[in-house]
Design a protein that fits this description.
Structural class: alpha/beta
Number of strands: 7
Distance between the termini: 26 Å
Strand content: 15-25%
Bound molecules: S-adenosylmethionine
CATH topology: Rossmann fold
Length: 240
């Protein structure tokens, strides 16, 4: 796997190192706890079967691995990948405290160049991470490559509400309120301005499903959550 320590520090990875100590608190606060409900949807849509092998990209502080393990007893083992050493150190602490560290390993790496063997995972997940990858299509191709035939990718990402009124209220909060609170609590105003700028520029809905199919997924569908503030994308790799 391409090791982030071998390359010059990427500004986004350094940004996550700086906000890691406040990341979980701000997620709960700024989403009014919805982020927890959204991650539960990933666990609900894991593929059928037992002894699942799962890969969680942009794993950050390991909330997706933790939520999946708590919600289902069907996970044999998991690997979390993230380039930010700061985020991973909080993730490792949480795994130790939940007694799940024997089941899951967290490693530094870039979702766009995994360097892992092909066709080894039943499910690949990524929550609020694909938007941060420099080349999201390369990240999606890697996800498809490391999935077993018939495996499933679950991509959770912010999107924009379809209803014009709700969208207006949401954008006001997202552009003006959230960056201020995030900046004050994290001590890094730029990080929370980055959030709304990248979300507003990122493809969502049908456009993102198209990217998934172009990356090799046989099927891709979008499941809007909380009026479309977030969307869960489900990509199926063709079976044998
Ligand atoms: C918003 S956080 C999401 C963390 C976690 N998945 C969650 O649900 O809370 C985004 C994460 O993407 C990671 N990231 C940034 N660039 C990445 C890349 N090229 N490959 C993998 N992860 C990346 C960051 O370090 C950060 O931990």
């Amino acid at each position: 796997m391409a090791h982030p320590a071998d390359t010059p520090r990427h500004p986004v990875w350094s940004m996550f190192d700086r906000i890691a100590h406040r990341y979980d608190l701000l997620n709960r606060l700024l989403s009014f706890g919805r982020d927890v409900a959204w991650r539960k949807q990933i666990a609900r849509h894991l593929p059928p079967g037992t002894a699942l092998r799962v890969l969680d990209l942009a794993t950050g502080t390991a909330d997706v691995l933790l939520e999946n393990s708590r919600r289902t007893g069907r996970i044999a083992w998991g690997v979390g990948v993230d380039p930010s050493a700061g985020m991973l150190s909080f993730g490792r602490k949480k795994l130790r405290e939940s007694a799940l560290s024997g089941k899951h390993a967290l490693v530094r790496g870039d979702a766009a160049q995994l360097g892992l063997q092909s066709e080894i995972f039943d499910a690949v997940t990524i929550a609020f991470g694909i938007r941060n990858v420099d080349d999201p299509s390369a990240g999606l191709r890697e996800m498809c490559r490391v999935l077993k035939p018939g495996g499933r990718a679950l991509v959770l990402e912010f999107s924009l509400p379809a209803n014009a009124l709700f969208r207006g209220v949401y954008l006001f909060y997202f552009r003006h309120v959230l960056p201020r609170i995030g900046g004050i609590i994290s001590g890094d105003p730029a990080a929370y301005r980055y959030l709304n700028k990248t979300v507003e520029a990122f493809p969502y809905g049908d456009a993102f499903c198209r990217l998934m199919r172009e990356a090799g997924f046989a099927q891709a569908e979008a499941l809007p959550l909380t009026f479309g503030i977030a969307t869960l994308y489900i990509g199926e790799k063709a079976g044998e």
